[in-house]
Amino acid sequence: MGGGGGGSDTEIQKLSATIHFDPSGTQANDLIVVVPSIGTVTGTANVSASGQLNCKMSAKLAGGVGTVTSALTSFGGGKNSNGIPFTITGTTSNPIFLPDVKGMAGNMAKGLGGDATGAAGGATGAAKALGGLFGKKKN
Predict the structure, then answer these.
(1) Residue 45: pLDDT band by 50, 70, 90 thresholds?
(2) Exposure string (b/e) for 125-138, b if CB count within 10 Å is 16 or more?
(3) How confident is the model at residue 21 (pLDDT cuts 50, 70, 90)?
(4) How many CB atoms lie within 10 A of CB 52?
(5) Based on C-alpha coordinates, what's the Rg of the chain?
(6) Residue 109's pLDDT band (cuts 50, 70, 90)
(7) Is 75 within 8 Å of 67 (Cβ atoms)?
(8) Which residues neighbour 48 within 8 Å (Cβ) at sequence distance 6 or greater?
(9) Cα(11)–Cα(127) distance, rounded to whole angstroms?
(10) Residue by residue, what is the 3-state secondary structure of the chain?
(11) Which of 81, 91, 31 is nearest to 60 (CA)?
(12) Could you read off the pLDDT of 69-94 as tens digits, one per residue?
């Protein structure tokens, strides 16, 4: 099934949310997006009537994404975590994706139960991977 533009399509296995519309904007709660080649994204998304974004999300990367997955696991709190937290702000025409550092720190603290040395090493690798994953803030 071609997209007509010559590029490859992205398979979305699941997309669900509880949506609320009113004059002030749109709220999407219990958002779940499953893309087998990338992973699962969950969270809440608010879009104001003027197009301002306020989204709190979490991503669980698929195992096939590569070394980024293992490096970021420590920020997510381990393999059984709720994922890598991030936010989306800005506007619908210019969204800004940022890692939720406070959420990551909380997840790391929860996962420190055993080997703090291993967690610190994982954090270093994850910090490097995050720089490439999220890139710079776009204006």
Answers:
(1) very high
(2) bbbebbeebeeeee
(3) very high
(4) 13
(5) 17
(6) low
(7) no
(8) 24, 25, 54
(9) 29
(10) CCCCCCCCCCCCCEEEEEEEEECCEEEEEEEEEEECCCEEEEEEEEEECCCEEEEEEEEEECHHHCHHHHHHHHHHCCCCCCCEEEEEEEECCCEEEEECHHHHHHHHHHHCCCCHHHHHHHHHHHHHHHHHHHCCCCC
(11) 81
(12) 455 554 444 554 568 999 999 999 99
pLDDT score of 115 more than 80: no
Amino acid found at 138: K
**Cβ–Cβ contacts within 10 Å for residue 55, how many?**
19
Ranges 26-35, 84-93, 95-104, 108-117: which has the least confidence: 108-117
pTM summary value: 0.62
Q: Give the count of alpha carbons within 13 A of 32, CB side only.
A: 8
Widest CA span of the chain, in angstroms?
51
What Å distances lie between residue 88 and 9, 17, 31, 63, 98, CA to CA?
A: 23, 17, 14, 24, 6
